[in-house]
Design goal:
Low-confidence stretches: none
Largest sheet: none
Strand content: under 5%
Number of strands: 0
Mean pLDDT: 79
Number of helices: 2
Keywords: Coiled coil
């Protein structure tokens, strides 16, 4: 095989064309890769947004459950406290009834004590009026009696 000068130029031109074609193909492959990556990004963003919303929903449900449990515990504690206070009140009332029955028993020295409604203060009030001055002749008699008493003792 012998190489002709025209063939050498043709080979160089062919080689250059192949290099250019390979460069074009590489550019096309790169652009396709970029397009593929750009197409995947929104899909990944949608997946990430979905994952984020699901995660946030789970967190919200968990926080809601914890708050509800805390409220139930608080209500149970309040109900227990109310029951305790009712029990204490019942004990105090029964003890007061016992004392009352004991005070009203016939053998008690103070059995006649009236335990019940407090009497009204209007019933026993004295009328408010100015005292009447002592008559003059009564004063004379008192002075004479006093004078007699003093005279007897001297």
């Amino acid at each position: 095989m012998h190489i002709v000068a025209g063939d050498a130029d043709a080979a160089k031109t062919l080689k250059k064309n192949e290099v250019c074609e390979v460069a074009k193909l590489r550019e096309e492959v790169d652009s396709l890769k970029k397009m593929k990556f750009a197409a995947i990004q929104p899909a990944m963003a949608t997946v990430n947004a979905t994952d984020t919303s699901v995660r946030l929903q789970h967190e919200f449900d968990e926080a809601k459950r914890r708050a509800q449990d805390a409220n139930e515990r608080w209500i149970a504690a309040l109900e227990e406290q109310v029951q305790t206070l009712k029990h204490i009140t019942e004990e105090a009332v029964s003890e007061a009834e016992g004392w009352k029955l004991e005070a009203q028993s016939p053998g008690n020295k103070r059995g006649g004590i009236a335990i019940g409604v407090t009497p009204s203060p209007q019933i026993r009030t004295r009328p408010r009026c100015a005292p009447v001055p002592t008559p003059v002749n009564t004063k004379k008699k008192q002075v004479e009696d006093y004078s007699e008493l003093v005279a007897r003792h001297f």
